[in-house]
Amino acid sequence: MTLPDAMRAVEITEPGAADVLAETSRPVPMPNHDQIVIRLAYAGVNRPDVAQRQGNYAPPPGASDLPGLEGAGEVVAVGSGVTAWAPGDRVCALLPGGGYAEYVACHQGHALPVPEGMSLQEAAALPETAFTVWSNVVMRGGLKAGERFLVHGGSSGIGTMAIQVATALGARVWATAGSAEKCAACETLGAVAINYRDADFVSVLRDAGGANLILDMVGGDYIARNLKSLDMDGRLVQIAFLQGPKAEINFAHLMMRRLTITGSTLRPQSDAAKTRIAEELRAHLWPLIAAGKIRILIDSEFDLRDAAAAHRRMESSDHIGKIVLKVAGG
Which of these, 159, 152, 120, lies nearest to 320 by C-alpha position? Predict the structure, then answer.
C-alpha cells in the first residue's frame, strides 16, 4: 500500500486551555524496526492528554509530540523485524503519543487484535484503560477472588474497566462517584456505589471489613483516608493525583496492619514491559471480553477537528465511560 506524504492531525500549539489544540498537517510516520503504522479510525481521549496539553506531562524521548495514547484501525505498513502483524490487520494499540492523527506508528508488541464483535470505536477506547487496569489491579495489586476491592472515580474510563475486571475475577467491588447517575452506572457494572458527596467511603469500607485493594487516581487527602480503609495486609495502588501528590500520613498504620503502598505510570515504561502487559491482556482479558464479561462504555464521540470540545468534556468530569475522536472520514 502506498501511503500519502501528509496527514491530518491535531497538535498542541502551546501549553494552555483546550483551545490551544489546533488541526494541522504532518508527515505520515514511517515504521522503524519492530514498528507498525496504523491508519486510525478512532482515537481515545484520556486524562494524560489533558495533562500534556497543559504542559504537565511531557512525551517520553523519541515519542510524537502529538497527544493521543490509544487508537484502533488498520495496519498499513510494517517495519523490519515485525512478525506479529501484516497490512490489513485490524488492531487496537497502546501508543506512546501521536494518536490525534490519521496515521500513527507504534511498537508491534503494543498492538492487539480488535476483539471479535467489537467496533473500532469501542476498540479505540480499550488499550489505555486495559493496560492500566490489568497491570495495576492484577499484576501489581494482586487482586484475588473473594477480596474486597475499592476503585475511586468508578464512572471514569479506568473506573468502569476496573469494576468489570474485578467483578469478573470474583472480587467484591466498591466504587466512588459524585452523582446519582454515575453511581447508577457503577452499580449496573457490578459495584456497590458510594456517592462521595454524601457518604464517607472510609466508614463504608470499614463496616464491610476493610478493603484488600484500592485503586486510586485522586491522591491528596484521599491517600490517608485510603490507608484507613484498608484491611490487614491491604494494598493501595496509586495511578494518578487529581488532587495532588502530597499528603501527610501516619506510617504507624502501615506497620501495625502490614499495608503496602505502590503505584505506577504507564507511558514511561519500556517497550518490553508494555509488551509483557499486552501478552497478559491477550491471554487473560481478551477471553473475558469474548465471553461478554467486559464491555466498553462510550460517553461521547467527537470529530478529530473537534478535539478541543472533547477535552472540555473530559475536564467537565460529567462523562461516564470513554470519550473518543473519530479520525477516519472526518
Answer: 159
CA 262, CA 237: separation in Å to the nearest integer?
Answer: 5
How remote is the C-alpha of 207 from its chain's centroid?
Answer: 30
Q: Give residue 165's pLDDT.
A: 98
The whole-model pTM stands at 0.96
Domain 130-263: give its CATH superfamily.
Answer: NAD(P)-binding Rossmann-like Domain (3.40.50.720)
Residue ranges per domain, the chain? 6-126+296-326, 130-263
Q: In order along the chain (330 residues), what is the average pLDDT of each group of 10 residues?
A: 93 98 98 98 97 95 96 98 97 98 98 96 98 98 98 98 98 98 98 97 98 97 97 98 93 94 95 98 97 97 98 97 88
Extended strands (E) in 16-157 = 21-27, 35-45, 70-78, 90-94, 103-107, 111-113, 148-151
Are the C-beta atoms of residues 174 and 148 closer than 8 Å to each other?
yes
Please, what is the angle between helix 180-189 and helix 157-168, to 10°? Answer: 30
> What 3-state class would DSSP assign to 123?
helix
Superfamily of domain 6-126+296-326: Medium-chain alcohol dehydrogenases, catalytic domain (3.90.180.10)
At residue 330, the pLDDT reads 42
Sign of the four-CA dihedral 122, 214, 262, 57: positive
Q: What is the DSSP letter of 296?
A: P
**What is the pLDDT at residue 329?**
60
- Residue-wise pLDDT tens digits, 45-55: 999 999 999 99
**CA distance to 206, 219, 225, per residue, from 243 (Å):** 23, 5, 13
Do 22 and 8 form a contact (C-beta atoms < 8 A)?
Answer: no
